[in-house]
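Design job #97: recover the sequence.
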């Protein structure tokens, strides 16, 4: 792949971060120096005092661009990933956050890495996306997507909720807990790992079901095929309420009897990494493996 194959570059950033303006100015100057067409998301354009930059809303930007550079942390990239569902676009993350599992290009090496990308020197992978449907009384109320995880959890009160779980129509269990995480391999190093779930390599076609603070000690995480249909029913029977959360960014209220159906999307998200990207190296660095105490 060469520079000519990226006809339009989009810029999305975490505008609340005070370091964003500096990074965005550097990106704009870089793209202009190379004569590349670009579009800045409206929210980003507003934080740049230069004005008169080519800008658009996110929906238009995603439809028009074939490469989107995301400036921020993993949360910013998660939001961008849900925006590009079904589009033929690649994402590249510039890390201004803390962990950087997904945004793995340092802002200090940004120009050098972009030189490589536009010279066709990069690694590309496709990450699995989940699609969640909230059903109430046989009606589909909500459709949402997640790159990390779909979470059904308690809300408002400090009490356990009851969830029935099915995989491909087969009953798995009833659990009393604070909730259940349905995580992709990408999300296995996020909320799921905090709940005691395993780390799944991104190349695996699998999802992991991780109970949150289960009342039964034998209730352990379980890994299933990503092409499975996972159904979770809030079955408290006492008027319990809960929430459906996707990637920790979108929330939908649940009531007793609601059914959440989680499946894998046919197309995933296409991520670009620098040449030499090493998933295990990322784990060692971010999780401090091997660090002396």
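Job complete. Output follows.
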């Amino acid at each position: 792949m060469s520079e000519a194959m990226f006809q339009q570059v989009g810029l999305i950033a975490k505008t609340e971060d005070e370091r964003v303006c500096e990074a965005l100015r550097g990106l704009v100057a870089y793209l202009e120096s190379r004569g590349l067409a670009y579009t800045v998301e409206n929210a980003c354009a507003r934080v740049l005092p230069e004005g008169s930059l080519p800008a658009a809303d996110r929906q238009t930007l995603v439809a028009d661009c074939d490469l989107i550079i995301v400036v921020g942390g993993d949360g910013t990239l998660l939001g961008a990933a849900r925006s590009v569902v079904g589009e033929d676009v690649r994402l590249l993350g510039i890390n201004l956050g803390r962990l950087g599992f997904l945004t793995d290009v340092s802002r200090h090496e940004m120009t050098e890495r972009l030189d490589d990308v536009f010279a066709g020197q990069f690694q590309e992978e496709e990450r699995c996306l989940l699609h969640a449907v909230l059903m109430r009384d046989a009606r589909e109320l909500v459709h949402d997507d997640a790159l990390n995880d779909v979470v059904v959890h308690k809300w408002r009160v400090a009490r356990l909720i009851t969830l029935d779980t099915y995989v491909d129509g087969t009953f798995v269990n009833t659990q009393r807990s604070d909730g259940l995480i349905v995580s992709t391999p990408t999300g296995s190093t996020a909320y799921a790992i905090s709940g005691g779930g395993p780390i799944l390599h991104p190349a695996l076609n699998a999802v992991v079901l991780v109970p949150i603070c289960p009342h039964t000690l034998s209730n352990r995480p379980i890994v299933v095929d990503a092409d499975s249909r996972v159904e979770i029913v809030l079955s408290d029977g006492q008027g319990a309420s809960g929430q459906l959360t996707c990637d920790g960014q979108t929330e939908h209220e649940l009531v007793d009897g609601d059914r959440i159906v989680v499946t894998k999307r046919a197309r995933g998200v296409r991520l670009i990494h620098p040449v030499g990207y090493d998933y295990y190296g990322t784990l060692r660095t971010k999780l401090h493996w091997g660090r002396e105490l």
